[in-house]
Design goal:
It is built from 12 helices and 8 strands. It has 297 residues and is of the alpha/beta class. It has 2 domains: 167 residues, Rossmann fold; 117 residues, N-(1-d-carboxylethyl)-l-norvaline Dehydrogenase, domain 2, CATH 1.10.1040. Strands 3-2-1-4-5-6-7-8 form an 8-stranded mixed sheet, sandwiched between helices. The protein binds NADP nicotinamide-adenine-dinucleotide phosphate (NAP). NADP nicotinamide-adenine-dinucleotide phosphate (NAP) binds next to helix 1, helix 4 and strand 6.
Length: 297
């Protein structure tokens, strides 16, 4: 259920990239008045203002944040602290405002200059991969948005998450680093693992344009198995079965045809032996596989 529109504060977006633009667009659609948007370049600010349907944009963030009850700093992580400091120094923080950033890794305490100017501070991290500015449909619908910070900031972030149709999860400030590491593995490293699979398939002579089509049913089936039976039960394949010879032939062929891919194959194989053991693979088979995967090419 969306929260009450009359209680919605005016928002300002600072950093008109992928996350900032999507937040601005869908919070505006959810009834939040937008005081304005600011970015490093006027071109980005103007584009985002156009997407939201407002005419207030700037490359001086303090000019749009001064009138906002909620400031969302959506610059790259490295620019959050300096941007916040700049806004505070220029008198752009309205006392009583809520200032939030969207980094998954960094704590809200980074926004101390805004707190010193009378704002309450927090962070609000959408647990999704935004590879482009997506405004065709609400990218926040059904995803987790994790929030942390001072109680008033958390309450505001929670209401916004609800209005974006996301699922709000409150996390401890100290937990952010490992939380973010988990997200990096689930999203970014998944891309790396898929790339390994794609490259091996291409080396086998399958057309580049077909590799995703070939592997997608297998990927989907594996995810469905994880959902159904969990880990390690979802693990199948030669390591789970203890097929030492099969794994040896993989190592042979990869070593001669794609030696550049061998170390990642070995490292993932080693981790998989641990899971196979947890699923019930007998100890001596696990040891043989482990030694095989360990040995020098
Ligand atoms: N992308 C994701 O998948 C994702 C997911 C969850 C959370 N996040 C978080 O969301 C935040 C934004 O990430 P993003 O992917 O949206 O980044 P992005 O697409 O690179 O956009 C960042 C924007 O900030 C602007 N900017 C850079 N330095 C600035 C400064 N000093 N002052 C004002 N604006 C400045 C850039 O400006 P110009 O275009 O004007 O040069 C750019 O448009 C980060 O904290 C990130 O960790 C990202």
């Amino acid at each position: 259920m969306p929260t009450d529109i009359p209680n919605k504060s005016t928002i300002a977006i600072v950093g008109c990239g992928k996350v900032g633009t999507c937040l601005g667009k869908f919070l505006s659609d959810a009834g939040y008045p937008v005081a304005g948007v600011a970015s490093r370049s006027m071109a980005s600010a103007e584009r985002t203002a156009g997407i939201i349907g407002i005419d207030r944009f700037s490359d001086r963030p303090e000019t749009v944040t001064a009138a906002a009850g909620i400031v969302l700093i959506t610059t790259p992580d490295d620019a959050i602290a300096s941007t916040c400091q700049h806004i505070a120094d220029k008198g752009g923080v309205c006392p009583g405002a809520v200032v939030l950033h969207c980094s998954g890794a960094l704590p809200s305490t980074l926004l101390a200059p805004a707190k010193a100017s009378g704002a309450t501070i927090g962070s609000m991290h959408p647990l999704q991969s935004f590879a482009r500015i997506e405004v065709e449909k609400n990218p926040f619908c059904g995803i987790v948005v994790s929030v942390e910070g001072e109680p008033a900031a958390v309450a505001t972030a929670r209401a916004m998450a609800q209005d974006l149709e996301a699922v709000c999860v409150e996390i401890r400030t100290e937990a952010k680093t490992l939380y973010h590491a988990s997200a990096v593995v689930a999203s970014n490293y998944l891309v790396t693992v898929m790339d390994l699979a794609f490259q091996l398939l291409e080396s086998a002579g399958i057309d580049t344009c077909d590799v995703l089509k070939v592997l997608k049913p297998l990927i989907d089936g594996t995810l469905a198995n994880i959902e159904k039976v969990g880990i390690p039960e979802a693990l199948t394949g030669p390591i789970a079965r203890g097929d030492v010879e099969t794994v040896a032939t993989h190592l042979d062929q990869i070593g001669s045809l794609r030696p550049d891919l061998l170390s990642l194959y070995r490292a993932l194989g080693q981790a998989t032996v641990g899971l196979a053991r947890a699923k019930g693979l007998e100890a001596n088979r696990a040891e043989q596989l482990s030694q095989l995967l360990d040995s020098a090419p």
